[in-house]
Design goal:
Keywords: DNA-binding, Transcription, Transcription regulation. InterPro entries: ArsR-like_HTH, HTH_ArsR_DNA-bd_dom, HTH_MetalResp_TranReg, WH-like_DNA-bd_sf, WH_DNA-bd_sf. This is Helix-turn-helix domain-containing protein. The longest helix is centred in the middle third of the chain and has 32 residues. This protein has two domains: 133 residues, Arc Repressor Mutant, subunit A (Orthogonal Bundle); 55 residues. It has seven helices and five strands; from the N terminus they run βααβααβββααα. The radius of gyration is 19 Å and the shape is globular. The chain is mainly α. α1 runs parallel beside α5.
């Protein structure tokens, strides 16, 4: 009997409770969760090597993520049935300021989590910049870093974000379908970071 929880796949999850947000927002847990999303099912020892931390510490944080349903156990991927494998519980995870705005603790936890995510994304991009020569001319030409300025109202910004998200999702699905059909040549993980927000001078 398999008592592992199945991965919901594309079923999105929105974090709305403070306990889960605080559990998710820990810097190392964010890194572990992100690694599981990219690498797929992994053991604590594999993750420890990828995030450069002790196995015991990674195991502790995996349990905390599991307590809040952010990760679930995966089917064993090796011949050693004693190994415990983990996977992200969902492909799409979100959290919004509006769900935490009513308490100072909630506002602080939301801001801290967003800042940690931005710092980790910044680190990821800097790593690419440091290594871009090794990627070759084709990937360097395809990669992009752009900045746009638009005069919008909130409804227009909401619509713009929805359209961008839908377009990226289309490419995600096309990539998955192509790989499933055996078209794997030249494919790599691609990070698309989007930030859209109002500002005044």
């Amino acid at each position: 009997m398999n008592d592992k929880q199945p991965k919901p796949g594309d079923e999105p999850r929105r974090i709305t409770d403070l306990g889960t947000l605080k559990a998710f927002g820990h810097p190392l847990r964010l890194k572990i969760y992100s690694t599981l999303r990219v690498a797929g099912p992994s053991t604590a020892s594999q993750l420890a090597g990828q995030v450069d931390e002790a196995v015991s510490l990674v195991s502790y944080h995996l349990r905390k993520l599991a307590e809040h349903g952010l990760i679930v156990e995966a089917d064993v991927q090796s011949e050693d049935a004693r190994e415990r494998w983990w996977q992200a519980a969902q492909d799409t995870l979100s959290f919004r300021h509006e769900d935490f705005k009513d308490t100072p603790e909630g506002v602080a936890a939301h801001a801290a989590t967003v800042r940690t995510l931005i710092a980790q994304r910044d680190e990821q991009y800097k790593t690419y910049l440091d290594q871009q020569a090794a990627w070759g001319a084709e990937w360097r030409k395809a990669a992009d870093q752009s900045d746009f300025l638009a005069r919008l109202n909130p409804a227009e910004l909401t619509r713009l974000n929805a359209e961008i998200h839908a377009l990226i999702k289309t490419y995600e699905e096309q990539g998955k379908a192509a790989e499933a059909a055996g078209d794997t040549a030249g494919r790599e993980n691609v990070a698309v970071h989007l930030a859209s927000f109002p500002f005044r001078l």
